[in-house]
UniProtKB/TrEMBL annotation:
This is Methyltransferase type 11 domain-containing protein. InterPro entries: Methyltransf_11 (IPR013216), SAM-dependent_MTases_sf (IPR029063), UbiG_MeTrfase (IPR010233). One of its GO terms (cellular component) is mitochondrion. It holds the Pfam family Methyltransf_11. Transmembrane segments: none annotated. Keywords: Methyltransferase, S-adenosyl-L-methionine, Transferase, Ubiquinone biosynthesis. It comes from the Eukaryota. Residues 55-151 form the Methyltransferase type domain. The keyword Hydrolase does not apply. GO terms for molecular function: 3-demethylubiquinol 3-O-methyltransferase activity; polyprenyldihydroxybenzoate methyltransferase activity. One of its GO terms (biological process) is methylation.
Amino acid sequence: MPELDEIYATNSSTWWNENGPLKLIHVTNDIVVPYYLDVICQRFSKTSPINVKLLDVGCGGGLCTEKFGEAGYSVIGIDINPDLINIAKNHLHSSLRNVSYYTESIETHAENNAEKYDVVVINFVIQHLTDHEVFVRNCVECLKPGGTVLIGALGKNTGAWLMRKIYIEKMLKLFPPGLYDYNRCINASDLESMLKKYKCKTQETRGFFYNFLTGKFGWFPSSMGYYVLYAIKKD
Ligand SMILES: C[S@@+](CC[C@H](N)C(=O)[O-])C[C@H]1O[C@@H](n2cnc3c(N)ncnc32)[C@H](O)[C@@H]1O
């Protein structure tokens, strides 16, 4: 089975191609990015967007990061993969001066940026990790008290996993084989408990599923497959 970095390196040049091998990331972002923007807009309705500091952890080629930048927020995108940071930098329009990218892990970033951000976004990174708790702790460390953390993730559920494997990977080929590892997924309830341990109270968890008829994701009353959540760090 190829390693994650290898999969992303092989497909990095097509990162921004909506119909390329990483199509799933694009269709997922179609539902989660408007949700993230709504939550941020509501939480910071009294603050000018440029004064809202946002960290996009594991930003990849910048698909979400740019959307936050276009909405006017002050955005920093970090990723451990230098190829993806190059893709993100090359794609960025020079007019988006409020967006910066760095090749850096969250572990290193947290050492020098404690309580710096109003918003931390973790969009579909967690399902690639072995130590979820250390990652969550470092992300929360970067968040100001009263700040908001937004997370998109894959639930750890056998039925949802088989659907994803058989239909989305093998039949529809919406992502390359080996991109996801069942053991690295995490259920929303476990993530909520982890956040609580680091003083973040979950405000909402929303499930969504892939609709094979429309080729799009739609909201769903269960978070066993895909979900987003947002939590607020205690003041
Ligand atoms: C599926 S991609 C997510 C891409 C992006 N968030 C998006 O929605 O378009 C996961 C990314 O997380 C990055 N990553 C994994 N562990 C990380 C860490 N400890 N610190 C920073 N980035 C990390 C990987 O290099 C990869 O690019």
